[in-house]
Amino acid sequence: MARILSCIQPTGDVQLGNYFGAIRRWVEDQTPESFHGIVDLHALTVPRDPVEMRAKTLELAQILLASGLDPTSTTLFVQSHVHEHAELGWIMGCTAALGELERMTQFKDKSARQSGFISGGLLLYPALMAADILLYDADEVPVGDDQRQHIELTRDVAGRFNARYGDTFVVPKATIARAGARIMDLQNPTNKMSKSADSPQGTVLVLDDPKDIERKIKRAVTDTDNEVRYDPETKPGLANLLQILAVCTATTPDAVAGRYQQYGPLKADTAAALVEYLRPVQRRFAELESDPSYVRKVLSDGADKAQSVAAVTLARARKALGLLER
Ligand code: TYM
User: Phi/psi of residue 173, each to 5°?
Assistant: First the structure.
């Protein structure tokens, strides 16, 4: 059975891209070999409001459980509860080359977008991410398309460490869904949908009210030729809607495209399907929201389980490096 690990940041609100590209796949493929982390340390690359930080971490755990992660199977934990992540993160920072880190698209984009203060953490972000993955001897990392480059870097640093110090880490691979791996902003369909983007009308949140979901989908930017065809290159807005409807109805964008002649009915059906798709998640979220102590217990048990695995891997890495034991 493949060991699976993937994580999500507790920043902003969970949006449809997170759900389609990552969360739904974690739920569908979960086994006792699944590990999923809420990566709060990753969220610190920009200053955060501490009250919101705590609230968003708990809310994200509730959303993941409401989505169907089953804590009797999957290990769900908060990254900072397992100190091994920060320790191996430093070691990975020393294993990655400065040039490799500087070449990361997300680093380049984010550092270009931020005016003024840019933290050193933004550069080291992928080293901590490599640590998250390698600590669990993960074979597979189910992520959206935007994380592909970070997983490639993880493979490179794992291989480099193994070559320098002897076989220590499992070299993982990214698994990327065929549909839903890159959900685009509904208003700017050449940009990916993002919880940090300043585009509320272009971003569907998993906890959005059904009326808001309908409005956002119906106002989604398409083109004007009114020909329904799946072509992400020349018709990115329409292709995005076809992807969304395909995921909701468990089919392919091409198959969905064959059923429509006009944009209006396609938009109406996509909105309706999405509302139905998210309804059970929203209902379970409301139930879990009233029981925060249950969620805290899940996270505490998850941290124990995660740590029992992570500690063994970190000890292996320390030994390989020749760090003196106490
Ligand atoms: P994050 O928190 O930005 O996103 C979580 C997951 O959602 C996917 N995703 C998308 N998929 C499709 N379309 C979109 N528009 C879209 N937007 C986001 C992301 O690809 C991701 O899978 N660096 C990671 C968190 C991380 C991690 C890890 C992931 C830290 N350590 C170890 C895997 C393994 C991130 O910022 O994800």
Answer: -130, 150
Helical (H) or strand (E) element with 276: helix 263-289
pLDDT of residue 195: 83
Q: Does any ligand 1 atom lie closer than 6 A to the CB of residue 9?
A: yes
Measured by CA distance, the residue closest to atom 19 of ligand 1 is 144
Q: How far is ligand 1, taken at its centre, from the CA of residue 8, in Å?
A: 6
pLDDT at 196 exceeding the cut of 80? no
Closest CA to 274 of 183, 166, 143, 145: 183
Q: Which of 3, 5, 6, 8 to mutate to test the pocket of ligand 1 (most atoms within 8 A of CB)?
A: 8
Instruction: Write phi, then psi, for 136 (nearest 5 degrees).
Output: -105, 10
For residue 278, what pLDDT is reported? 98
Ligand 1 geometric centre to CA of 313 (Å): 24
Q: What is the pLDDT of residue 178?
A: 85
C-alpha–C-alpha distance, residues 23 and 29, integer Å: 10
Give tens-digit pLDDT for 37-71: 999 999 999 999 999 999 999 999 999 999 999 99
Residue nearest to atom 1 of ligand 1 (CA): 8
- In the chain, the domains with their CATH numbers are 4-181+292-321 (3.40.50.620), 200-286 (1.10.240.10)
